[in-house]
Structures are given as C-alpha cells and as structure tokens.
Amino acid sequence: MAYLTLKNINKIYPNGFHAVHDFNLEIEKGEFIVFVGPSGCGKSTTLRMIAGLEDISNGDFLIDGVRVNEKGPRERGIAMVFQSYALYPQMTVYDNLAFGLTLQGVDEEVIEQKVQNVAKILGLTDYLERLPKALSGGQRQRVAVGRALIRKVGIFLMDEPLSNLDAKQRVTMRSEITQIHQRTGASTIYVTHDQTEAMTMADRIVVMKEGYIQQVGSPYELYFNPVNVFVAGFIGEPPMNFSRGTVKDGKLMIGKNAMDLSCKLSSDRLKEYEGKEIVFGYRPEAIVLGAVAGAQQITASVELTELLGDNTNVYVDIQGVKNILKIDPHDTPEMDTEIVYSIPTESIYLFDGVTEKVIK
After folding, report:
1. Is 281 left (phi over 0), alpha (psi -120 to 50) or beta?
2. Which residue in 223, 205, 102, 91 sits closest to 151, CA to CA?
3. Per-residue model confidence as pLDDT tens digits over 248-286
4. What torsion, rounded to 10 degrees, do the Cα atoms 140, 141, 143, 149 define?
C-alpha cells in the first residue's frame, strides 16, 4: 500500500467554484513529488487539503492506510514550508528553529542539539543569533526549511518556497532542498509554477490544468512522452513548437507545406484522419540545420536571434507561423535571412486536432 493515497479528491467552495476535480494519486514513502501548472490550476489548493488547511469536499485522503480527512494539521505528522517564509521577525534564527519544539515542551538540551544539527545541515551555524531582517532571502528560506526539518516528520509540504528568491539563489536552494530530502528520506510534495524546478527536483511530476490532473510521470516521461498538447507545451524551455494542419491525400497540409506523415502513422490511421485537423509538434532543440535525408525539411525566415551562451534561440517565421529553434551559438544565422532545417522522424509529435491528445 502507498504511504499517501488521494482517492477522488474534490474541492468545491461554497460559491460553487469547483477548484479540484477527481484528484487521484498514490505517493510512496520517500518520494519527491512536484505539483506543477499555471496559476489557478488547483495545485496549492490540493496541497492545502493534504496539509489539513482546507477541507476536502469529496474523496478520501489516507496516510499509511489511515483516513485522515477530519484530522487537523498537527495530527497528520506534516511540516509545511510557505512561500512567505512565515518567520517570527522578533526572534533570532535559533529561536525560530526551536519554536515548535519549545511549544511541545521538549527539554532545552535536546532542543539545543537538534537546532545545532539542523543549522549545520543548512549552513546556518554562524547566523543563529541574527534576526530574520539581517539575513538574505536565501538564508531566510533555509531557516523556514529548517523549522520544518527539525520536527522530524515523515511528510514535508512546500508551497512555491523559492518564488521570492533571485535566479541564482533559486538554483542554489533547489540543490539544497533536494539534498535535504535525500538525507531525511521523508515524502515531499512540492508546489511550483516553474517547470524547471519540477524537472530538476522531482521523482515524479503531477501536471495540472484547471483543477484536473493532465499527466503523472517522471521528468523523462513527461518530456519525451507527453499525453497531450498542454503537457507538451508546458514542459520544456523554450516550449514545443506547434502547427495545425489538415490531412489531405495522406499528407499534413500546413499552409503551403506538405508534411509526409507516412513515417509516423500507418495507412489505416492516415485514412482515419483524412480531412481532419492534426497538431504537428517538435521541440526547439530537436532540429538539425540543413537538409537531412529521411527527415522533415522546413524552410523558414529568421526574425530574431537570442544568444544565451550555451545556445542561441532563433525565432523563425514559416508562412505566418512562428517557431523557436535552439541551436549551437556558433551556427547562429543572420536576421532577415532564410534557413533550411530538418526534423528527425523520431522527434515529431502528432496530436488530435479536436481532443489535443497525442496520436500514437
């Protein structure tokens, strides 16, 4: 049996707004799960139901086989890290870390030992006597993580904990949180709108949209085997390129371009989609400059280039359709020129034009 089980979880507010629909997920002990999706998709609401901060309208939430819907946050053995840090400004770092244990009446010597151990893990030993206002954003975030860590619980919940940090601090804290998770062995559920955080930290990712789960899988599975247009476009930076076209005589017509689909679909499938709309997709980094035998060739006009150091983003126009290419910086083309590039067959994705589900 899974350590955490969410069965048909729904959240319906008194005004009738249905925020989370039939959420089903099993989480093993020690897993690092990331909920990801755009603002308003229901990921934070789901986390708050797991924490006991929001009532579950329908469904069952089980911890180690025991239903805990009616139990409060303290009874669930859960520690939560918020986006806002939620530190006590008048307390030192030491007192912030020790606060929960002090409330529980833990012996001072035990508190001292636990605070020192957590401070060492998080690199806070030299800051224990400082107030939060004297710390950087990254240091304050470490204190917030430490306050959760010191309780030695089996479940950590993190709600966009890095959103207030700058880009460099986020990269550092990502690796620190991952290392802390590995040391503690606790089950961690992490909410973010940043797909890079999800890809780099998660054992499994739950992609959400408008209150519904779109796909659950490892970062590899979501990147290379997306189940629909939404997941394919949400996971990956820059996002996947999409073009809509209609199948005619076995070819996908996108403007004046005729894409040969026989390499991807059987003759029976091609007949099934004759006259219907298909979404053609490929990732920006999947292309090869120039014409390659057996690959789909495209001619495009270069509109803009962005040199990023390790690669160049090239924005192109294909008869009115905008695409982004990711290429080696040494091959950066001139703007307002025409280029030819190829998309290998294995890098082409096809989606149903109506359901937007992947076509196998």
Report:
1. beta
2. 102
3. 988 898 877 788 888 888 888 889 999 999 999 999 999
4. 180
Assess whether pLDDT exceeds 70 at residue 1: no
Please write the tens of the pLDDT for every residue from 88-104: 999 999 999 998 888 88
C-alpha dihedral, 83 to 86 to 90 to 96, nearest 10°: -110
Distance CA 219, CA 231 (A): 11
Q: Where in the chain is the domain with CATH 2.40.50.140?
A: 241-352
Output the pTM of the full model: 0.90
C-beta separation of 235 from 199 below 8 A: yes
3-state SS string for 192-261: ECCHHHHHHHCCEEEEEECCEEEEEECHHHHHHCCCEHHHHHHCCCCCCEEEEEEEECCEEEECCEEEEC
Query: What token pair was written down for 230?
Result: 């939404």
Distance between CA atoms of residues 79 and 155, nearest Å: 6
Token readout for 68 is 């805990």
4-234: CATH number: 3.40.50.300
β-pairing verdict for 32-36 and 187-192: parallel
Rounded Cα gap, residues 121 and 181, in angstroms = 12
Task: Return the structure tokens found at 128.
Answer: 């224990």
What CA–CA distance (Å, rounded) separates 209 from 197?
Answer: 18
Query: CA-CA distance, 223 to 36, in Å (whole number)?
Result: 14
Per-residue pLDDT band for 79 (boundaries 50, 70, 90) equals confident
pLDDT at residue 235, as a whole number:
95
Cα angle 85, 234, 145; round to 5: 20
Residue in the block written with tokens 């008869």: 319
CB atoms within 10 A of CB 164: 15
Residues in CB range of 52: below 8 A, 6 or more apart: 68, 71, 72, 73, 75, 76, 78
List the one residue out of 229, 182, 186, 219 whose CA is nearest residue 358: 229
For the domain made up of 241-352, the CATH class stated in words is mainly beta
